[in-house]
Amino acid sequence: MIKEYDAIVVGGGIAGLTSAAYLLKYGYKVLLCEKEENLGGLVGTFWESGFAFDWGIRAFENSGILFPMLKNLGIELEFINNSVSIGLGKEWVTLDSMASIDQYFQMLARQFPDNHRDIDLIAKEIKKVMGYMEVIYGIDNPLFLENMNDWEYLLKTLLPWLIKYQIKMHKAGKLTEPVDTYLRRFTSNQALIDVIIQHFFKKTPTFFALSYFGLYLDYCYPLGGTGTLIKKMTEYVINHKGEIKTSTAIKEIDAMKHIVKTSHQEVYHYKKLIWAANQRSLYQGISGIHHKEFNKQKALVSQSRGGDSILTVYLATNLPKEYFANICGAHAFYTPVKDGISSLQPWQEQNKTTELIAWVKDYLATTTYEISCPTLRDENLSPKGKTSIIISTLFDYHLDLHFANLGESKRLKEICITKIIEVLDHSIFPDWQQEILFTRCATPRTIENKTSNVDGAITGWSFTNPIMPSENRFKKMTQSIKTPIKDVYQCGQWSFSPAGMPVSILTGKLTADAVRKERKREKI
To answer: What pTM value is reported for the model?
Structure first.
């Protein structure tokens, strides 16, 4: 007899876990399948030789979503504030208040003394977007409200917020132009533009990019590492009698019979299927559907490109946490020079392997780095007197793939590790090379292999796609969970602000609510 479930959730990242948790809260029989050995996707913590490293996301944004979700599910998790520092050359600013945003612009003015007026204009634009964000995430998201009969709250808090929300979202919705193009309205200095935006993805919409200066003030970090959230969510699913199968990929879906077949040749029947995994694998594995809308979406998904990816170096050091606290703090974005990566020719124009290697070294000397120090948030994440450091930068998946095709993947990692250590040794971490105990490197292809994300993407689909293969307008988010397949929903497929975890949680909740509504309707 084929085992039957009210819902099967495919993909054990934060979106899939959220969807499964709420379906169980609503009383449904749920199976969650994850192709990897561990749950979490791009949220997780791994340990090596007593050092903890956060895999994927380095810190969390609440965005009026994370904390309400945890409270709603009764999950207790201890967080600390996670201030973000921004460094340029030898200067640093810590973003911990609105006043510190002004200090950031003052730093830019010192670095670019001929562009004071341009910087003032850009500052005004960033503050405008931050004002939108204050409203949009000004209250806990109503989706997580337990009691919709609290009329005082509805009239005095929710209704006024909804009015402001509609106004601000209308204005924010107009800021869809790529941020690099938008900022050229205010300055012709490409290096200045690069310094501001080169830790964002290619062609990132203006609202998405500029909003992050406000979101940095909202960052938090869970004690025990980011993987603590996944552990707690997993415990919730198990404690509420949900079934979890890891190392289990879904290979075939018979949409007509509502049946899935796993990589272990197990067969399960679903009433509703929630796809929280790679969209391509859904359309590649499904059978029994041939109508026009399905074929159109399948073609769009197969042709679209994933968003930008990153290269990450994980380092264990003999240095005490105070060494890093006095320089960059627990979480930072650092640009060694103000030349800007636009000063480099495209890597595709390099004809020889030696030229390509030289280009990579030039890129790593110019790019912006995200630097994360788990030990500074929780001293238990490293051996006493030692510190783990995570250093990432945007990196082209196709460049990584090119090195792989040349048979030079190992060499690329060695080059990147050596050059990144050298760049930071010559700038902010003097003489730290001799204190490094071991290093590990993850490239975009590493992310692709671990998560199956198209092109090793870390947030979703690329903004360079002519048409997005998923709904990405914030006001239309409820439409993003729909597919052209009967009784099949999707979540975690997103490419807008706040990309990543908050919207993954939100879409996970939306799919659970949609299933609940549909199941109730079917029983009438």
So the answer is: 0.94
